[in-house]
Specification:
This protein is α/β, with parallel strands linked by helices. The protein is flat. It is built from 23 helices and 30 strands. Strand 25 (587-596) and strand 26 (600-607) form a beta hairpin.
């Protein structure tokens, strides 16, 4: 577990760069430590070359001049002086350092060198570092505000780690406005040492934290993040927002899978497999955080809606259904009691419409009956400010109901000026209010999704035996010939070594030999150009199917080789691959892999054939994945119904697809030098009849690429 107590509960703090000048960051950090209350917990030592006194505290020229031990140091000085100050911290025995100073990796080559020096010094003395280039850190329960934020946020159950300091200031201001309370806040900056992974491990064991929030621009140790987050998510919800996931600037790729996969797909797969809830915007992040931070778990998907307006009730119903939740079917006794207590025009069914003239007592009646119904897992209470509406009193009724039941109760008081008194009552009691039904539904959906995450069994990754020696021989041969691409003819040996069925085939050096092989296999056959330099055979007319005579094979061979020699004269030509023509297949699918620089092998599944890049009906998982996760991939593509059979077609052999996915997962784990891979198509037969890999190609990493490839 990452021990970060020296950051959040230090026995003493030094501010290196403390200043009497109120315009300086060093003054702001010191002031926050004083006014935030830390001086009542432990001593604060301003460090300033001039010594003297700052904010009533004795200042010292260096940390070495402080007579007492220092556990946490905050450095707020120009970048060129940071390394020397950090070395003095090491000599003093400081355990943890927050480097607020900028001018490091984010500033160019010289900054990179400065950051590397900082890392070396920290490692030499065994110090932990947050930063550099950060806003600072806050623990509202210590209390400790070692940042230059304008104010200290109120206490609350949410811990927030942000890679962006500027975004952090907005978060803190939003919290200061009373919308949410924080247990901890960390600006991670350049992450020279402490990262999101360390925060997850530390906050998993933090009694003051109920929900962990992350804003990240990059995850440099993606596989470690998935492993740790998967464990932490069993105890506490993790809600993350990730920016910078477009394909802009991505490296060139040559496989179908490579063109489909990108940073965004890798993060989606990583968060899904790790059990991290993905927020698409800061608004979604906050909406989820409020529900997780202040409400009990949602133990099912059955939601009841109580409203004083029909339109918002319908909007809520649509939003709940869209997010994957369902309207609770109220017990007959509940409906009868509602019908007896509400006006005749009201609706006793779900959504429960208490009508526009409903006062607080009518809401209270509906709330008590619906919340007590065993078929209801959670409540959404909608209020629009009408002439008879008792807004604050209705809010108090909602609060009373929420306190009496171990079910999440969310409010949707719609409006602005007139409803503010009600929102104040709800916020003070920890009942989240959302301005629109769709946002409340999203929060309830997040609660439901997290419940399913917690119920996942511990992952078991299948270990499949493959013939590694045979595979290595093919890879070595390609490298010896100076090639990074391995096409269909050679890839057959890899498929066989993975235990995957393949069609009969053999390379023919000339037309006569092609005819001999075709006769041995039996007509009809397929002819494919065999060249390590022709990656997409169809682009040069390099595939002919359904050849059913010697003459057709001979003509196709001569035409294919002529075209390659004319249009690609530098291509190495081995001849043509004569292949058994597979008939009777029910569906063609694609299985591929693209190696992501952060997360490693990203395995793809979708419809195969020539239209895959146009339709982009694919889904992704990071290897390794469980059998259950492989099965989930089959349900996630838009055309998943085709796997179950349509218009009289029988269902396909899903088990054969899952088996292929797991074998490819094993292959790309065992051979990290494979950076791209396509099986396209994998022809799948009817249920119980298996599948056969028709075509495969892969790309190896360049020896000089250090994790990339040419």
């Amino acid at each position: 577990m990452a021990k970060l107590d020296s950051f959040f509960r230090p026995k003493s703090v030094a501010v290196i760069g403390a200043s009497t000048n109120e315009a300086k960051l060093g003054h702001a950090v010191l002031r926050n430590l004083v006014e935030g209350g830390y001086v009542r917990v432990g001593p604060v030592y301003p460090i300033n070359p001039k010594g003297d006194e700052i904010l009533g505290l004795t200042a010292y020229p260096t940390v070495l001049d402080v007579p007492e031990p220092i556990e946490l140091a905050v450095i707020v000085i120009p970048d060129v002086y940071v390394a020397a100050a950090l070395r003095e911290c090491g000599e003093k025995g400081v355990a943890a350092v927050v480097i607020i100073s900028a001018g490091f990796r984010e500033a160019g080559p010289e900054g990179v060198e400065r950051e590397q020096e900082v890392i070396r010094i920290a490692e030499e003395f065994g110090m932990r570092i947050i930063g550099p280039n950060v806003l600072g850190i806050i623990d509202t329960y210590t209390p400790l505000n070692a940042s230059f934020a304008a104010d200290t946020p109120p206490q609350g159950p949410m811990a927030f780690g942000s890679q962006s300091g500027a975004l952090g200031t907005a978060i803190l201001d939003w919290a200061q406005g009373g919308q949410m309370g924080l247990s901890k806040f960390v600006s991670l900056g350049n992450k020279a040492d402490v990262s999101e992974i360390d925060l997850l491990q530390a906050w998993q064991a933090d009694d003051d934290t109920r929900v962990i929030l992350l804003y990240s621009e990059e995850l440099t140790s993606g596989q470690d993040f998935v492993r740790v987050a998967r464990e932490v998510a069993r105890d506490k919800p993790i809600v993350a927002i990730k920016s910078g996931t477009t394909q802009a600037g991505a490296r060139a790729v040559s496989s179908h899978t490579g063109s489909l996969a990108g940073s965004e797909q890798a993060y989606q797969a990583a968060f899904r497999q790790a059990g991290v809830l993905r927020a698409e915007s800061m608004q979604e992040l906050f909406d989820m955080a409020l529900a997780f931070g202040y409400q009990p778990p949602l133990r099912g998907k059955r939601i009841a809606v109580i409203t004083n307006a029909g339109g918002p009730g319908i909007l809520a119903t649509d939003a709940l259904e869209h997010i994957g939740l369902e309207l609770a079917e109220l017990e007959p006794t509940t409906r009868a009691e509602l019908a007896g207590g509400l006006p005749g025009a009201a609706s006793a069914a779900n959504p429960v419409d208490v009508l526009g003239d409903a006062r607080a007592d009518r809401y209270q009646l509906a709330l008590e009956l619906v919340a007590a119904d065993p078929n209801v897992d959670g409540l959404l209470v909608i209020l629009t400010p009408q002439a008879m509406t008792e807004i604050a009193a209705t809010a108090e009724a909602v609060v009373k109901t929420a306190a009496a039941h171990d079910k999440p109760v969310l409010a949707c008081f719609m409006g602005a000026k007139r409803i503010q008194a009600g929102i104040d009552v709800l916020t003070a009691a920890g009942v989240p209010n959302y301005p629109f039904p769709k946002r409340a539904a999203l929060a309830l959906g997040a609660l439901a999704e997290y419940q399913s995450i917690r119920q996942r069994p511990a992952p078991e990754f299948p270990k499949i035996e493959i013939d590694k020696a045979a595979i290595q021989a093919v890879l070595d041969q390609a490298r010896q010939e100076g090639r990074l691409s391995i096409g269909d003819a050679e890839a057959r040996a890899i498929l066989e070594a993975c235990g995957l069925p393949i069609p009969q085939s053999e390379i023919a050096e000339n037309a006569d030999r092609a005819v001999e092989i075709a006769r041995q296999i039996g007509y009809p056959v397929v002819l494919k150009i065999a060249s390590p330099d022709v990656l997409h055979k169809t682009d040069v007319g390099g595939v002919k199917v359904g050849l059913d005579s010697d003459e057709q094979v001979r003509d196709a061979f001569e035409l294919m080789t002529y075209r390659v020699q004319r249009y690609l004269p530098e291509a190495r030509l081995w001849g043509c691959l004569v292949q058994e023509m597979v008939t009777g297949g029910n569906l063609e699918v694609l299985i591929g892999m693209n190696r992501d620089p952060q997360f490693g092998p990203l395995v793809t599944f979708g419809l195969g054939g020539i239209y895959v890049e146009v339709l982009k009906d694919v889904t992704f998982r990071l290897a390794p994945f469980t059998r259950a996760e492989a099965e989930e991939m089959l349900t996630e593509i838009r055309s998943s119904a085709l796997l179950d059979g349509v218009r009289g077609q029988p269902p396909v052999d899903k088990e054969a697809i899952v088996d292929t996915l797991l074998r490819i997962s094993q292959l790309v784990q065992d051979f990290p030098e494979i950076v791209e891979l396509d099986i396209n198509p994998l022809t799948v037969f009817s249920k119980g009849s298996g599948a056969i890999a028709i075509d495969m190609r892969l790309v190896l990493v360049s020896a000089a690429a250090n994790g990339g490839h040419s």
